[in-house]
Amino acid sequence: MDARFINPVLNSIVDILVTMAHMQPAPGKPALKSGVQARGVVTGMIAMNSPQATGSIAISFSKPVIVEIVKKMLKMEIGEVDDMARDLVGEISNMMAGGAKARLEDGGFDFELSLPTVVAGESHAVTHAVEGPVIVLPFTTNSGEFFVELCFS
After folding, report:
1. CA-CA-CA-CA torsion for 10, 15, 17, 18, nearest 10 degrees?
2. Cα 55 vs. chain centroid, distance in angstroms?
3. Measured between alpha carbons, how far is 101 from 4 in angstroms, rounded to an integer?
4. Which tens digits make up the pLDDT trace of 71-84?
């Protein structure tokens, strides 16, 4: 996978959460993922296709983090990952992919984005649009952890 994809995705999600949820996520060290199990309870995924590369990105939130994001962005209290939380994860995925797309255009990439897909539940699978190594970017917030995955060929 091309390492040039990591920073645009990382910067995009940080910008979104700082601006819209007033959260300061701290990125951890990128790592190679083994297996397909999500590291959170709700995951949004978007495929990205261009003449230069094909792949997908996913963002997987732990329950405490998505509950806090719903509270801060939608001014609502939830106790479980409900339809509102799933919809918000889809929208955050869309914003993250759009922000990364804009940054990648500066590097000569011309991506088209799919609609977001959201999967929720303990131990759900994250299936990327292409086969290949999956890079996981862990993030820590005051509420807990979330994870961004990238897989491109």
Report:
1. 130
2. 13
3. 12
4. 999 999 999 999 99
CA separation for the pair 50, 39 (Å, rounded): 28
Domain 3-152: state its class.
Answer: alpha beta
Farthest CA pair distance, the chain: 43
Structure-block tokens of residue 35: 């297996």
Cβ atoms of 44 and 90 within 8 Å: the answer is yes
Q: pLDDT tens digits, residue range 120-132? A: 999 999 999 999 9
Q: Side chain identity at 140, as an amino acid letter?
A: T
Under the phi-then-psi rule, with left for phi > 0, alpha for psi from -120 to 50, and beta for the rest, what region is 50? beta
Beta bridge partners of 150: 57, 135
Query: Domain residues of the chain, as ranges?
Result: 3-152
**Nearest partner of 65 among 100, 12, 125, 21, judged by Cα:** 21
**Strand runs labelled E in the chain:** 26-27, 31-32, 42-49, 54-61, 112-113, 117-120, 135-141, 144-152
Give one word for 144, left, alpha or beta, with left for phi > 0 and alpha for psi -120 to 50.
left
Rounded distance between C-alpha atoms, residue 58 and residue 38, angstroms? 10
Among the listed residues 142, 138, 120, 152, the one whose alpha carbon sits nearest the alpha carbon of residue 46: 152
